[in-house]
Automatic annotation (TrEMBL):
A GO cellular component entry from the record: ribonucleoprotein complex
Region Disordered, residue ranges: 209-247, 261-300
Biased composition (Basic and acidic residues): 215-230
UniProt biased composition (Polar residues): 263-279
Matches recorded under InterPro entries: PIH1/Kintoun_subfamily, PIH1_N
Protein name: PIH1 N-terminal domain-containing protein
Highest rank taxon of the organism: Eukaryota
Source organism: Powellomyces hirtus
Limits of the PIH1 N-terminal domain: 62-169
Swiss-Prot/TrEMBL GO biological process terms: box C/D snoRNP assembly; rRNA processing
Length: 377
């Protein structure tokens, strides 16, 4: 065999091994171990296959398969949730850093096309997800949210499949952790990964406050004009009158309206508060099944807070939030969330604010041990 043919076959072989390692490091190690054992059994002291492949800068840990918005003829989307030590900061304050790759296209073995993306976090974040199921769930939702936001698509969580230690599609990064389809200077050896989205799995409120403060000083003319919009102030006492105060800013507050009568004592009167919206409670069973949004609860300074992320919802008028004595129901055209209110929270004093820039709804209730600290408008 000619030398160039040997080199070509060797290059092809190593590409296959590299692809195997990228998709499943465990499978790669098992395969190489078997080859090494066979070589040693034949008396080969220094077998070629004993040399392990160079570690990938970006390694797949979880692979999500979702249906969603049709892109270039395919509504099948894969998200590789990956780990890398090339990300300089795992978190910025309490915000998990997520690096999103460019969108790629590939095909299944039967020729079916699909879209694939990488959402990369620091290795320490993956370690935490492996140790805490709750954090893993939030991390996967965070990855989906980042992909939805970055590529302006909607993904269906219902029927989503999750596999571990897999990487779907062709490998999308070079040896320095740079996206392969991004033009870079070949002499530049630095990591050129761009942080597309910094979100949080621990405190949406902190991110809102930090980026909201930045918005006050930096923004386009359109952003400045939006700040001057007059937004209604929330009033939530019994039989709430029309709001008379006005508030400026990026926060949209939902109007308080009288409770919807259901004919039962359990859900009538002041035990139930409903917020106005371009959506009726009777619409809940209309249309496709609604998916559960990412949400979290926190306590601070005598206030219990529920925050939920609603991608694609651009106005508070498109949200229906119903507060009962022991639960909260949030309803939009695409999402439905039911959350329990703790026993010491005062639902009648709840405030509801929507941050359209971040697509986050915040519902805050003072607790009975500190009911004087009701969040101000």
């Amino acid at each position: 065999m000619a030398a160039n043919e040997v080199a070509e076959q060797a290059s092809h072989m190593w590409k296959q091994l590299d692809a195997m390692y990228a998709k499943s490091p465990d499978e790669y190690r098992d395969f190489m171990s078997k080859l090494n054992d066979e070589a040693e059994s034949q008396g080969i002291v220094n077998p070629l296959f004993s040399t392990t492949a160079k570690p990938r800068p970006v390694r797949g840990k979880y692979c999500l398969r979702c249906a969603g918005t049709k892109v270039k003829g395919s509504n099948v989307h894969y998200i590789n949730v990956c780990e890398s030590t090339n990300i300089k900061k795992a978190r910025v304050e309490d915000r998990v850093t997520v690096v999103v790759s460019k969108a790629r296209r590939d095909k299944e073995e039967d020729g079916t096309p699909y879209n694939v993306y990488d959402a990369v976090v620091h290795t320490s974040i993956i370690t935490q997800a492996l140790q805490t199921p709750h954090f893993k769930r939030d991390l996967l939702e965070l990855a989906i949210g980042c992909i939805e936001e970055s590529f302006k698509i909607s993904l269906n969580r219902t029927g989503m499949k999750v596999t571990t230690d897999t990487y779907k599609g062709g490998y999308g990064w070079d040896a320095y952790g740079r996206a392969l389809d991004v033009a870079v200077n070949p002499d530049d050896k630095s990591v050129a990964a761009e942080t597309i989205s910094k979100m949080t799995t621990t405190s949406l409120l902190t991110r809102i406050q930090a980026e909201g403060d930045e918005e006050k000083t930096v923004g386009s003319k359109e952003d400045s004009a939006r700040k001057e919009e007059q937004l209604p102030n929330l009033i939530m006492p019994t039989n709430a009158p029309p709001p008379t105060q006005q508030k400026k800013g990026l926060i949209q507050e939902l109007d308080g309206v009288p409770a919807r009568k259901t004919g039962t004592a359990q859900h009538s009167g002041l035990k139930q508060k409903q917020l106005s919206a371009n959506l009726d409670r009777n619409d809940e069973d209309v249309g496709p099944p609604r998916r559960q949004p990412q949400s979290e609860t926190t306590r601070k300074d005598g206030v219990w807070v529920l925050e939920t992320r609603l991608p694609g919802v651009n106005s508070a008028a498109d949200i229906l939030a119903e507060l009962a004595i022991s639960s909260i129901t949030v309803l939009t055209r695409e999402f439905r969330l039911v959350a329990n209110i703790p026993g010491d929270a005062i639902a009648d004093a709840a405030t509801c604010r929507y941050y359209p820039k971040f697509h986050v709804l915040q519902i805050a209730c003072p607790t009975r041990d500190n009911n004087s600290q009701i969040p101000s408008a």
